[in-house]
Amino acid sequence: MKNFICFLILLVFGGFVFFLGWTQIKVKPGSIGIVQSKTGGVSKNLVIPGKFSWHKEFLIPTNAQIQKFEYKPYNGSKTITGKRYTGDYTFTFQISLSYEAELIADLLNDNKISNQDDFESYLDGVASYLAQRAADYILIKFNQDPFFSPQSLTISELVSALAFYKEYPDFDINVLAITDYSYNSSEANSL
Question: How far apart are CA 98 and CA 72, in angstroms?
């Protein structure tokens, strides 16, 4: 009987310890969690719903917390406008970017973001950079041929010319489409 009571106490204690460190249940689907602790900093082991995760940092009271971030592709529209010596231009791009979940932990660890709003601003900045690079490339094409049509560009040609992966290797371009443009010059007018 004494052995059974000891076994029962160990079982309850073990269950309690397991439950304290079990982080998977603390993050909802469509999100990821990143454990930050006073003793270990930012954990590289992400908390992903549906994938078992356990973090010993939660065994010490008030030592750790989980930062939660939405994990979904960036989808947005960016408009680039400006003037050049040859005329005015406006390009509107539809952009969709995907990224590895580890990117969020790296940004958090490097103090580039601290919450979901910061991360969304970061994604928006990456998309703006991509749109500006695409607009610059199209302007080069217009300088080479005033009757150039941006819709003739394929996504693979545009992605290859921009070499976006060199600046942002953690991102994949899913969509980079010109949805509207105008290029007014003394030599030619676009639609």
Answer: 7
